[in-house]
Specification:
The protein has five helices and six strands; from the N terminus they run αββαβααβββα. The protein has 189 residues and is of the alpha/beta class. The chain has a six-stranded mixed beta sheet.
Length: 189
């Protein structure tokens, strides 16, 4: 009987060692754990914010508290941008960012000198159709903002001047990416 217990102990120990080796070689319990709701590390320019989703709010429903101001992601009412160089609602901002547009916001009534030129180096002149397709660099007034704030889906960059080369780099990198498609992780087109 003791020989049988000895063999059983050897088999159990061998099985435990084999499972341990497999777990260590495959990353074990630490593999594949990611913070839910956090954007992946795209390595792109600007400050990254948590992806709050792209769900559509029913009319009359209260807005959530966004984790950035202006918002870079989150539930919203679908509202297209039809004009450039105007104040945009948060719904319009989120709709455009989800589609893949980049928005340059400024705190004055008109764009600061040079901002239109920077936008023109990245995308064709604004049109509502271009914005709907997620391929526009939109200029928007947001009173109270210092300098220029560039927005893309889950990303923001603040610069003091349109001459800052980071502004163009940001727009070139993020234009056309937008919110991931549900379950596919692909940018919207």
């Amino acid at each position: 009987m003791s020989r049988w217990l000895e063999r059983l102990a050897v088999v159990a120990a061998s099985l435990a060692v084999a499972i341990g080796v497999i777990a260590v070689l495959s990353g074990g319990l630490l593999a594949g754990h990611d913070a839910p709701g956090v954007s992946g590390s795209d390595g792109g320019p600007g400050t990254a914010f948590r992806d709050q989703g792209d769900s559509r709010l029913p009319p009359g429903e209260l807005r959530p508290v966004y984790d950035s101001n202006p918002p870079t992601s989150g539930p919203h009412l679908p509202e297209a941008i039809t004009r450039n160089r105007v104040h945009l609602s948060d719904d319009q901002v989120l709709q455009a960012l989800a589609a893949g547009d980049v928005i340059f916001m400024y705190g004055t009534r008109t764009p600061p000198p040079g901002l239109t030129a920077v936008a023109g180096t990245v995308a064709p002149p604004f049109s509502a159709a271009l914005a709907a397709s997620g391929q526009a660099v939109v200029l928007a007034s947001r009173p109270g903002l210092p300098g220029v704030t560039a927005l893309a889906w889950t990303h923001m960059l603040r610069v003091t001047s349109p001459r800052d080369p980071a502004l163009q780099t940001f727009a070139q990198f993020w234009l056309g990416r937008g919110a991931p498609r549900a379950g596919k992780g692909l940018p919207r087109s």
